[in-house]
Design goal:
The complex is a heterodimer of chains A (about 575) and B (about 80).
Chain A: H1 2-19, H2 21-33, E1 52-54, E2 62-64, E3 70-71, E4 74-77, H3 121-129, E5 134-140, H4 141-144, H5 153-168, E6 172-178, H6 226-236, H7 242-257, E7 263-267, H8 281-299, E8 330-333, H9 337-342, E9 358-364, H10 371-375, H11 392-405, E10 408-414, H12 421-434, E11 438-442, H13 474-480, E12 484-488, E13 494-498, E14 503-510, E15 517-521, E16 529-542, E17 548-563
Parallel strand pairs in A: 4-5, 4-11, 5-6, 6-7, 7-8, 8-9, 9-10, 10-11
Antiparallel strand pairs in A: 1-2, 3-12, 12-15, 13-14, 14-17, 15-17, 16-17
Helix pairs in contact in A: 7-8
Chain B: E1 5-6, H1 8-20, H2 27-44, E2 48-49, H3 51-78
Classes of the chains: A alpha/beta (about 575), B mainly alpha (about 80).
């Protein structure tokens, strides 16, 4: 009897251990020891150089080009391909998803009820004019797979159209499987006061709320909604196989863009809300194993164990190789929402995948969406006492998280109320320079309204819509049209751009034979260029839009590149 | 013959041991409760039962503690 009880108890311990941290830790350690896979065939020729994540000995991984140079992304996030709801539960995309509506420079009229204008070819041209070399393109699962198992070729063609526009201008695209408060299909009862116009994400068939009420428990906090929390929870536990379907929808994208070098990679899940789960278990047992499964499916690396895909998949479960074998695109892995609002790690940073092309991406909304602001919306960023480590906290800790996971670091969203540009935007950009991390600014354009965060001006009115969201905000043009190194063989270079004076300075170390360092100077900056130190060649190439590209080839040793201070030539709202 | 009574903290150790697997913070308590329970069971000379539960609690606690140590060590070394 005692022996039987001991055996039974031991089995229970083993099962619980396998399903929880011991299983997750063992799986991650095995993944961490698995050699990185390499592509079996040469990279297909691409219009843009293929990017990957480089792993220097003892250093932080970084996004690199085909010559091994660190590449810094500067870009924005246009929210225009998303499928939002409305305050009346209206549910159809605000803009056509048929690429024909945008062909030949066409641009549909702005829809009054949408927060955003349509994304047109002229937008990509405006991004390029600001010197952006990348854009994060949010998509909605609800438009990609509106009916279970049936993927929208029309929507895919629309995504490909944006990729083609970007590629033609040398801009990389990060395809982002976006969501806001899970879905706008979290039905809200009439009169409940729930505004679904900022909800996007899952299709109706994948929104399982189990009858929980759809209402905001905290004012203006769309995530604090029982139906939203339950829907997230069901996703993480793969209720009815919906997580497996999500993986298939990413595979649908990956098949299309497998040979497209202008697609930098895939952002797997935006702002993952934990459902009813607590950190660190949420990330370590549910979120990052989910990321591992996506990578298993797309890259074919098989890091997890085979498991049934129609039910809850514990952390040790991988996913079937879906035959795509895409080992060239990067995977952008976002930590849980709680980390994003605390600027503090909420997970152990366990190895996720043997695929080397991982990017840990954070949202840097210090004093915008961090916890002290959520608790007290009227708190003043100038006097806020949290985060204790100031603006640097999220970056310094994210470096440690990225290092633990074996990933490069990227800021996939940051942004702020324009009235705080001189404080928040300035500090965030300084941190991004200091930590050598690229960024995507939220958001590109919004339709009017005094709460607009877009790069372009709403003209201070809520009357919207406005043609093209108005003119570019001068402060945004001043700060975002920056001088910056687009590529350098020295991943430890340091640089600083002063957007008040237009002055720029960079110091780097190079060896003879290293690929050149490229510094982009936007049209707005007119100062003279000086190169000093160990270089064998320097070329300043003027572009047709008035911008310049400085190319400096190192000869061995330290060199510097400087742009002299000069009045900026801003084109924005006057 | 009087059936042995159940040692109360053995069940507590079992519960804490299972909790220690997902939540390592419970591990020391599971180990402590399990050891204390085993001592009382042995001292009772057969009058108190619950050995399997106590040992399971200790095992769960030890695994949970090992995970906490390994996870923390990994974070400190790798980050």
């Amino acid at each position: 009897m005692r022996r039987g009880a001991l055996i039974a108890a031991g089995v229970v311990v083993l099962i619980v251990a396998a399903l929880t941290y011991p299983g997750a830790l063992a799986t991650s350690m095995i993944v961490g020891l698995t050699p990185a896979p390499t592509p079996s065939s040469p990279a297909p020729p691409g219009a843009l150089p293929w990017l990957h994540v480089a792993h220097p000995n003892g250093g932080l991984a970084f996004i690199a080009d085909d010559r091994g140079r660190i590449v810094l992304f500067h870009g924005a996030v246009p929210a225009d391909l998303l499928d939002f709801g409305t305050s009346n539960n209206w549910s159809a995309p605000a803009y056509p998803i048929d690429s024909a509506a945008y062909a030949g420079g066409q641009c549909p009229a702005i829809v009054a009820h949408s927060h955003y204008p349509p994304l047109c070819q002229s937008d990509i041209e405006q991004m390029a004019a600001l010197g952006f070399n990348s854009l994060r393109l949010p998509l909605s699962w609800s438009l990609l797979e509106p009916t279970r198992g049936q993927f929208s070729q029309t929507y895919l063609d629309r995504v490909a159209q944006v990729v083609d526009w970007a590629k033609a201008l040398g801009i990389y695209v990060i395809i982002d499987m976006h969501q806001n408060a899970y879905s706008h299909f979290v039905q809200a009862a009439p009169g409940s006061g729930v505004d679904l116009s900022a909800n996007s994400g899952a299709p109706a068939w994948a929104t399982i709320t189990d009858g929980l009420p759809s209402k905001e428990l905290l004012a203006n906090q769309r995530e604090a909604n029982p139906a939203v929390v339950e829907a997230f929870n069901n996703f993480w536990y793969n209720r009815d196989g919906i997580q497996a379907e999500y993986i298939k929808s990413i595979a649908f994208l990956a098949r299309r863009f497998k040979d497209e070098s202008a697609v930098a990679g895939y952002s797997i899940f935006n702002e993952p809300q934990p459902g009813w789960n607590l950190p660190p278990g949420f990330e370590d047992l549910l979120l990052f194993p989910f990321y591992r499964r996506v990578i298993d499916a797309i890259a074919g690396v098989r890091d997890g164990l085979p498991c049934p895909t129609g039910i809850y998949m514990p952390s040790f479960c991988g996913y079937a190789d879906l035959g795509i074998h895409d080992l060239r695109h990067m995977f952008f892995l976002e930590p849980g929402l709680l980390r994003q609002i605390t600027d503090f790690p909420t997970h152990l940073g366990l190895p996720v995948s043997s695929d080397p092309n991982l990017v840990f991406d954070i949202h840097a909304y210090t004093h915008g969406f961090t916890i002290e602001k959520l608790i007290n919306p009227s708190s003043d960023p100038k006097t806020a006492t949290y985060p204790w480590g100031g603006y640097d906290q999220t970056y310094s800790l994210a470096e440690r998280e990225a290092r633990a996971i074996g990933a490069a670091l990227f800021v996939s969203e940051f942004g702020n109320d324009p009235s705080y540009d001189s404080l928040l935007l300035t500090n965030e950009l300084q941190e991004e320079e200091r930590h050598l991390v690229g960024f995507a600014f939220w958001t590109w354009k919004e339709n009017g309204g005094t709460n607009s965060w877009g790069v372009f001006d709403s003209a201070g009115t809520d009357a919207g819509p406005l043609a093209s969201s108005g003119c570019i905000r001068p402060a945004r043009e001043r700060q975002l049209a920056r001088v910056y190194p687009r590529a350098s063989a020295d991943p430890k270079l340091n640089y600083h751009y002063d957007s008040d004076t237009g002055a720029f300075g960079l110091q780097a170390r190079g060896s003879s034979g290293d690929a050149p360092t490229l510094v982009y100077i936007p049209r707005e900056v007119s100062g003279a260029v000086t190169v000093l130190g160990a270089f064998s060649d320097r070329v300043v190439t003027p572009n047709s839009d008035g911008s310049r590209l400085v190319t400096v080839t190192p000869s061995g040793g330290v060199f510097s590149i400087a742009v002299a201070a000069a009045p900026l030539s801003l084109s924005g709202c006057q | 013959m009087i059936p042995p009574t159940r040692e109360g903290s053995a069940t507590r150790a079992l519960a804490l041991g299972l909790l220690a697997l997902p939540f390592g913070v419970f591990a020391p308590f599971a180990i402590w409760a399990g050891i204390a329970s085993l001592r009382r069971i042995h001292a009772s000379d057969g009058g108190v039962s619950g050995t399997a539960s106590a040992m399971t609690g200790i095992a769960g606690g030890l695994i949970g503690l090992a995970v906490v140590i390994a996870g923390t060590a990994y974070w400190l070394l790798a980050s």
